[in-house]
Amino acid sequence: MTTCYGYTRVSTAKQGEGVSLEAQKDEIIRYAQKHDLIISHWFEEKETAATAGRPIFNAIVQDLLDHKADGLIVHKIDRSARNFRDWAKIGELSDQGIAIHFASESLDFQSRGGRLTADIQAVIASDYIRNLREEAKKGIRGRLKQGLYPFRAPIGYLDNGKGLAKTPDPKKAPLIKELFDLYLSGNHGIRSLQVEMTERGLRNVRGGILSRHGIETILSNPFYYGSIRIKRTGDFYNGIHEPLISASVFQKVQDLKAGKCGKKTSRHMFRYRGLFKCQLCKLAMIAERQKGNVYYRCHNPECPTKGIREEEIERALELQYSQKHIRPKELRNLIVSFDKWSMERETGQKKATQSKLRLGQLEARQSALTDALIDGLIEKEEFTKRKETLCLKIMRIREEQENSACFEDGQNYLRKFLELVNNLDLLYQLSNPIEKRLFVELTTSNRTIRAKTVVFEPSNWLIAAQNVLGGPVGAPQRPTSRTLPKAHIRALDELLELVTTVSQRELHQDMMDIFDKYIGNVSNSED
After folding, report:
1. Whole-angstrom Cα distance, residue 48 to residue 53?
2. Which long-range contacts (CB under 8 A, 24 or more apart) does 509-516 make?
3. Residues 6, 84 share a domain
4. Which of the residues 204, 352, 373, 466 could staple to 404 if both were Cys, CB 3.0 to 4.6 A apart?
5. CB contact at 8 A, 448 and 279
């Protein structure tokens, strides 16, 4: 009797959990019994046939070419192949004298007509897959444009089903934040970070230990700051999921990985490394530890600048920051001026607040004007003229409202900025070593050392702020008038422009982050 292989297939492992495989097998058994065929071996595969390369199917083809069986029985044509390459292998088997049987297809594959019919059905099956793939891609692109990620959630997030955004995993999300913070500190490379995060309990989606490649993948994934990147196409989409880190933190990590921010690992994380240069030879002062003390030395053998202890740099910085205080009397006058300035500016801004009712009335008139045109109560020329006038009034009111909102934001930022400038020494003292280094980098410039003398200048934003503050607090004043002098108004207007442009660009968000973290402690210290 003729011996045949029996082959059953489903596209996914989930489909394999149902009755499809058993139903295919029953159909093949009935077909074999009806045609006196013996099934010598069964093969089962849970793999899509849309692309070539199925391992079990390829093994069957090779065995049949080696004549280990006389034929092959498959449930249907689309169970054997849905791509032209694998279908060509079926044809090659038939050409080699191997009998091909389809249990649910009433065709003779050995005849010309039956072969032609099978080829046509194979083409239809292949076209079905192509169409299905395009429709799936279309659906995926639609989800991405909505800000949804239609794939498995990255580590640190949870899947919530179709049409729903990913949400932070309460157990893993904090560990992901720690991972970014640890790498950004400069104390860890990828290898040591893997060990550290393993000890802290971060695991992959299967519960196993994260590999170094897994750490790299997390650090490079923009999903964690709110963007969706499709690696294969390079497309970016704005996600609606909750980010775990800020975009600035992500960018700093990428710069650190690319080598733009110094070494990824360091045996000694000296506080002021890379910040100071020798004033004579313009070379960087290299930090080293000797007998428990940290020294910054110029390594040019011919340079008379030999070294200075870290404690001396610390004292020079503390002295510099302590001199940046506004004197108490001038600070009180500044606060009085600031409050008056705010009240005077807010008086003008109230007009924009009161304009909300006026805006509603104008929009209602605009709607009524359109209805009048539709009903034929007004000519098109008159409609156009009136609508232009209304649109101009509406635009002016909206601009006033926008200016009012911008002023409120700028006013809050200005008050916060004044507190920051007046508390530089306390902020510096309360910062940890990593933040102190960042603090010095942001608030000073032209940092040099000559012999035992530390020389540096305030950053441009700090100089500009002090120059502007010189107006309202430059001399004693008696605020007897309810109206603020024009010079003070002009000075505070300039400072508002400074903190909403220069400071946000040059000061960066890092400085304000440090301020936010310690302002409560500063207030308590002052009390």
Report:
1. 10
2. 509/248, 510/248, 510/438, 510/442, 511/420, 511/439, 511/442, 511/443, 512/416, 512/420, 514/427, 514/431, 514/435, 514/438, 514/439, 515/416, 515/419, 515/420, 515/427
3. yes
4. 352
5. yes
Q: How far apart are CA 290 and CA 279, in angstroms?
A: 23
Residue 473 belongs to a domain: yes
Same domain, 418 and 463: yes
pLDDT given at position 263: 47
Q: Are residues 58 and 163 in the same domain?
A: no
Q: Do 411 and 482 fall into the same domain?
A: yes
417 closest CA partner among 484, 462, 457, 458: 462
Predicted confidence at residue 81, as pLDDT, reads 81
Answer with the one of 242, 257, 272 that is the final residue of a domain: 257
Domain that holds residue 243: 157-257
- Global model pTM greater than 0.70: no
Q: Are residues 196 and 65 in the same domain?
A: no
Residues 6+ apart with CB under 8 A from 87: 80, 81, 119, 122, 126
Tens-digit pLDDT profile for residues 193-205: 888 899 889 999 8
Cβ–Cβ under 8 Å, residues 43 and 10? no
Which pLDDT score is estimated for 427? 73
Low-confidence ranges of the chain (pLDDT < 70): 13-19, 260-269, 324-356, 392, 395-423, 461-462, 464-527
Radius of gyration of the chain (CA): 37
Q: Is residue 370 part of a domain?
A: no
Please classify residue 229 by burial: count the beta carbons closer than 10 Å to its beta carbon, then call 0-12 exposed, 13-18 middle and 19+ buried.
middle
Q: What is the tally of structural domains in the chain?
A: 3
Q: Decide if 296 is inside a domain.
A: no
361: in domain: no
pLDDT digits (tens, 9 = 90+) for 461-489: 667 666 655 544 433 334 434 444 455 45
